Amino acid sequence: MSGAGDRGKALARWLSTGLLGLFLLPMSLSLEVSVGKATTIYAVNGTEILLPCTFSSCFGFEDLRFWWSYNSSDTFKTLIEGIVKNEKSDPKLKLKDDDRITLVGTTKEKRNNISILLRDLEFSDSGKYTCRVRNPKEKDLEHQATIILQVVDKLEKVDNTVTLIILSVVGGVIGLLVFILVLKKFIAFILKKTREKKKECLVSSSGNDNTENGLPGSKAEEKPPTKV
Ligand SMILES: *[C@@H]1O[C@H](CO)[C@@H](O)[C@H](O)[C@H]1NC(C)=O
Ligand SMILES: *[C@@H]1O[C@H](CO)[C@@H](O)[C@H](O)[C@H]1NC(C)=O
Ligand SMILES: *[C@@H]1O[C@H](CO)[C@@H](O)[C@H](O)[C@H]1NC(C)=O
């Protein structure tokens, strides 16, 4: 409510965006195009598959152009081409090569999603699909990302070995950390118990200790230099 509170909030927001910015700095300084983590996707013939593509630009965009193209060993063709007027509008298609393709993404609400859906997959659809984006607002900077589609007659069991290894390593590390934490707690507990016992001894055996401890600050002043 108060000005100071608002300023505090603004500062906090500024700091958090700043920190976030630091993390994202190498990634989003300019136009970026992404097809997600998977470089190859597998799909069964006759079914449909979403070919993902998103882009980001910290400068915003205007009349942004985009393409999806297909490239295999013997063919290169542009599948779909479009233009996005601005951040508040959805893409307008200028070209669509195939009825089996639908642009399913949206560019409204900062989704920046120009994914396409490919229906009735045929084996000949296997190949490289490249999503390209050009932003006039950034000196026609152009970026692209490629995803490989493999049309198969049935999905093989996905080889998860690497994922499993990573997961078990991560799990092991987390387990170890938890173990160390528990161990620390346990040791601290034991130490506290023994210290409590000692304290009891001190209090009960010597009256002098009490008076020394009773001088406030004297101990606290002594301690820091030994720490530094
Ligand atoms: C996919 O291909 C296999 C092998 O050619 C065929 O037997 C099957 O009917 C096809 N499935 C569809 C849905 O077209
Ligand atoms: C298509 O892919 C081939 C093989 O990877 C590559 O040599 C060629 O440059 C690509 N064509 C285009 C237009 O990107
Ligand atoms: C893009 O849009 C499609 C269709 O709505 C959706 O399935 C997909 O998850 C979206 N991708 C991202 C990264 O938001």
Automatic annotation (TrEMBL):
CC annotations in GO: intercalated disc; voltage-gated sodium channel complex
TM region positions: 162-183
Residue spans of biased composition, Basic and acidic residues class: 219-228
Gene Ontology biological-process annotations: AV node cell action potential; cardiac muscle cell action potential involved in contraction; establishment of localization in cell; neuronal action potential; positive regulation of sodium ion transport; regulation of heart rate by cardiac conduction; regulation of ventricular cardiac muscle cell membrane repolarization
All copies of domain Ig-like, residue ranges: 26-142
Protein role: Regulatory subunit of multiple voltage-gated sodium (Nav) channels directly mediating the depolarization of excitable membranes. Navs, also called VGSCs (voltage-gated sodium channels) or VDSCs (voltage-dependent sodium channels), operate by switching between closed and open conformations depending on the voltage difference across the membrane. In the open conformation they allow Na(+) ions to selectively pass through the pore, along their electrochemical gradient.
Record's protein name: Sodium channel regulatory subunit beta-4
Organism for this UniProt entry: Heterocephalus glaber (Naked mole rat)
